Automatic annotation (TrEMBL):
<protein>
    <submittedName>
        <fullName>Aldehyde dehydrogenase 9 family, member A1a, tandem duplicate 1</fullName>
    </submittedName>
</protein>
<feature type="domain" description="Aldehyde dehydrogenase">
    <location>
        <begin position="66"/>
        <end position="463"/>
    </location>
</feature>
<dbReference type="InterPro" id="IPR016162">
    <property type="entry name" value="Ald_DH_N"/>
</dbReference>
<keyword id="KW-0560">Oxidoreductase</keyword>
<comment type="similarity">
    <text>Belongs to the aldehyde dehydrogenase family.</text>
</comment>
<dbReference type="InterPro" id="IPR016160">
    <property type="entry name" value="Ald_DH_CS_CYS"/>
</dbReference>
<dbReference type="InterPro" id="IPR015590">
    <property type="entry name" value="Aldehyde_DH_dom"/>
</dbReference>
<dbReference type="Pfam" id="PF00171">
    <property type="entry name" value="Aldedh"/>
</dbReference>
<dbReference type="InterPro" id="IPR016163">
    <property type="entry name" value="Ald_DH_C"/>
</dbReference>
<dbReference type="InterPro" id="IPR029510">
    <property type="entry name" value="Ald_DH_CS_GLU"/>
</dbReference>
<feature type="active site">
    <location>
        <position position="234"/>
    </location>
</feature>
<dbReference type="GO" id="GO:0016620">
    <property type="term" value="F:oxidoreductase activity, acting on the aldehyde or oxo group of donors, NAD or NADP as acceptor"/>
</dbReference>
<dbReference type="InterPro" id="IPR016161">
    <property type="entry name" value="Ald_DH/histidinol_DH"/>
</dbReference>
Length: 474
């Protein structure tokens, strides 16, 4: 099994913070991997592993820090997102755990009266051992979104973080232990595809909940199908955000920024196809470009920073490649889209890019059709509601969508007609734990968050009770 190591001693080639404790958690404690083979280095996105004595100093002080701050800082160092966002992610994670802890006591079945005094009742029962496989964009939050409903329904969970972000899931395991979760009920195993495959194929696993790319999601589904395991798939997206001319433009621009630039644009539900009604296109572009240029990119640990570093070098290059291809296909770069080198010497090798707005886009361009997973907004003009809904739905994805308008009837009509698991009206990318989150079409199925997720982590037993004699046909 592969072990990811965030090993950042001065002079070493990786990262800046040394994590010496094992990152696997098994039977109630951190454990070393059984095999050291295939260990992979983990780079700090903001520095590419440059020596940062300030962080080494700070790490010594992590232990006494309140847990929220400590987890958020580690998340920033490991993932590259801004500390402002990471703190919100941790808040959403604990809110999710509290929410399902509350629901656990409210799990109930149904009583059904039958003829002759007989009756039946249903019981919600656990599935057994569930596997959670996480992506790198919301490492701690994804671990919470999967484990909280799983444990609330009485299951055990083995969670495998992305090998790019191995550091924080084990802290969640320690928090559960501290809160009284029995040893072995939440375990963390590190590794990549090989480890994920072993987990999906294990005969004692009852369910797999996966967050990541569509191609890997298909593999997870295939492997799970062989064992008739239940699956939740939270996959990618290319979500539409539709801005009508009667919108509150100020809010629509804010919504477009929220829809595109959180976590350096590496968010599955991002509204990256921004359809703007032609009448307001000039005003929209002027404002959105002004605001995008003002986004402070840089050291993700600074409170003032609004955009940090992308997850790794190949991913940064892939995102920049999408921008180059967009230009070749006729898009106009209104701002950003280039590698960004902060002036701070310790960040010069970090995986930063300037947030990008693309104009002159057409529906057939690669940047409009494919998930870029980076800070790149494609703006597309439209004339009518009917036309824009048809174009918005012309995708194999269906994770999220958004509409900005002051016309309440139109807002609900558009929400009804959009083929997506979520539609935001006059906002975008808020994640209250009380509401279900998940996809249509190739963005996956099953749901996370909300009451309905109980159904995805439990099975229903029907108990039929006879009160009279058995009616015998033989
Ligand atoms: N929906 C979402 O939230 C996310 C979507 N993505 C999309 O996926 C693309 C690639 O990101 P990756 O992290 O490489 O995603 P990925 O789909 O390759 O990996 C996601 C998780 O699946 C695991 N995995 C990989 N192969 C597996 C296998 N054969 N069996 C079981 N588990 C396996 C990985 O180790 C990781 O934990 C991104 O560029 C983006 O388009 C990535 C992260 C999050
Ligand atoms: N907070 C939203 C998480 C969405 C995602 O997993 O990309």
């Amino acid at each position: 099994m592969a072990q990811a190591i965030l090993d950042v001693m001065p002079g070493a080639s990786t990262g800046t913070v040394q994590v010496s404790d094992p990152l696997n958690f098994w039977a109630g404690k951190r454990v070393e991997p059984r095999q050291q083979k295939n260990a992979e280095p983990v780079f700090e996105p903001a520095t590419e592993g440059a020596f940062r004595p300030d962080l080494l100093f700070e790490y010594r002080w992590f232990r006494p820090l309140e847990k929220r701050e400590k987890i958020a800082k580690l998340e920033v160092i490991n993932n590259g997102k801004s500390i402002t966002e990471a703190l919100v992610d941790i808040d959403i994670a604990w809110q999710c755990i509290e929410y399902y802890a509350g629901l656990a006591g409210a799990l109930a079945g149904q009583h059904v009266q039958l003829p002759g005094g007989a009756f039946a009742y249903t019981r919600r029962e656990p599935l057994g051992v569930c596997v959670g496989i996480g992506a790198w964009n919301y490492p701690f939050q994804i671990a919470a979104w999967k484990s909280a409903p799983a444990l609330a329904c009485g299951n055990a969970m083995v969670f495998k973080p992305s090998p790019f972000t191995p550091v924080t899931a084990v802290i969640l395991a320690e928090i559960y232990k501290e809160a009284g979760v029995p040893d072995g009920l939440f375990c963390v195993v590190q590794g990549g595809a090989e480890t994920g495959t072993i987990l999906c194929q294990h005969p004692k696993v009852a369910k797999v909940s996966f967050t990541g790319s569509v191609p890997t999601g298909k593999k997870v589904m295939e492997m799970s199908a062989k064992g008739v395991k239940q699956v939740t798939l939270e996959l990618g997206g290319k979500s539409p955000l539709i801005i009508f001319k009667d919108c509150d433009l100020e809010n629509a621009v804010r919504g477009a920024l929220m829809a595109n630039f959180l976590t350096q644009g590496q968010v599955c539900c991002n509204g990256t196809r921004v359809f703007v009604q032609k009448d307001i296109m000039p005003q929209f572009l002027e404002e959105v470009v002004k605001r995008t240029k003002a986004i402070l990119v840089g050291d993700p640990l600074l409170d003032s920073t609004r955009m940090g570093a992308l997850i790794n070098k190949p991913h940064l290059e892939k995102v920049l490649g999408f921008v180059s291809q967009a230009k070749l296909q006729g898009a106009r770069v209104l701002c950003g889209g280039e590698r960004f080198v902060p002036s701070d010497p310790k960040l010069v090798n970090g995986y930063f890019m300037s947030p990008c707005v693309l104009d002159n886009c057409r529906d057939d361009m690669t940047c409009v059709k494919e998930e870029i997973f980076g800070p790149v907004m494609s703006v597309l003009p439209f004339d009518t509601e009917e036309e824009v809904v048809q174009r918005a739905n012309n995708t194999t994805f269906g994770l999220a969508s958004g509409v900005f308008t002051r016309d309440i009837s139109r807002a609900h009509r558009v929400a009804e007609n959009l083929e997506a698991g979520t539609c935001f009206i006059n906002n975008y990318n808020i994640s209250p734990v009380e509401v279900p989150f998940g996809g249509y079409k190739m963005s996956g199925f099953g749901r996370e968050n909300g009451q309905v997720t109980i159904e995805y982590y439990s099975q229903l037993k029907t108990v039929v009770v006879e009160m009279g004699d058995v009616d015998n046909y033989f």
